[in-house]
Amino acid sequence: MNEKIYGLLCIETETGIETRFDTTINLIKQMDSFEDKYWAILVNLTGHEINYIHDQESILIPISGVTLRCTPEEKVVSYIGGIKLISRQFSFANTPPCIIEGIWYIVPFKNLLISSRNDFVVPQPTKRKDGKIIGCSQFFNLTNGESLQSKEN
């Protein structure tokens, strides 16, 4: 894993969530010391910060320094009454990161759709009454139904 990729270590404590922001290499080195606690490393591969809302507390998840993008590939597959029917498939524009237990990668929704990885998650938007998105209070993936909070190490 590239030493320049940053992540946020989240440790569940009795009073809330403690966070540490550092390179993923440094955070991985700390993993052994958290055997008896619930923790996760979040690596934000989107192009923007994520505002995670937990028990009325906001935790800002900064961008990691790397953005995982996907690009479409289109080809005409048929014509329906003279109208083109195209096939659109997405592929990653850059190499996805390695799978490492305890690390969750926050990705754009399109990236989740083209991958079957259990460690890719997408923020579930939290909205105010007026409909404005203010952050997220949970993450989801499409592969196995595990939530970030239920991950035990």
Query: How would you characterize the largest beta sheet?
Result: 6 strands, mixed
Euclidean distance between termini CA atoms: 21 Å
Shape: globular
Summed up, the domain count is: 1
Based on secondary structure, the structural category is mainly beta
Q: Largest beta sheet: what is the strand line-up?
A: 2-1-3-8-9-10
Give the helix level as a range of percent. Answer: under 10%
Kindly state the number of beta strands. Answer: 10
* Quaternary class: single chain
What are the salient characteristics of this protein?
153 residues; six-stranded mixed sheet; two-stranded antiparallel sheet; 8% helix; globular; disordered C terminus
Condensed summary:
The chain is built from two helices and ten strands. With 153 residues, the chain is mainly beta. The strands form three sheets. Strands 2-1-3-8-9-10 form a six-stranded mixed beta sheet. Strands 4-5 form a two-stranded antiparallel sheet. A two-stranded antiparallel ribbon has the order 6-7.
Describe this structure in words.
There is one protein chain. This protein has helices spanning 24-30, 109-113, and strands at residues 6-13, 16-23, 39-44, 50-54, 57-61, 70-80, 83-92, 103-106, 120-127, 133-140. It has 153 residues and is mainly beta. The protein has one domain. Strands 2-1-3-8-9-10 form a 6-stranded mixed sheet. The model is unreliable at 147-153 (pLDDT under 50).
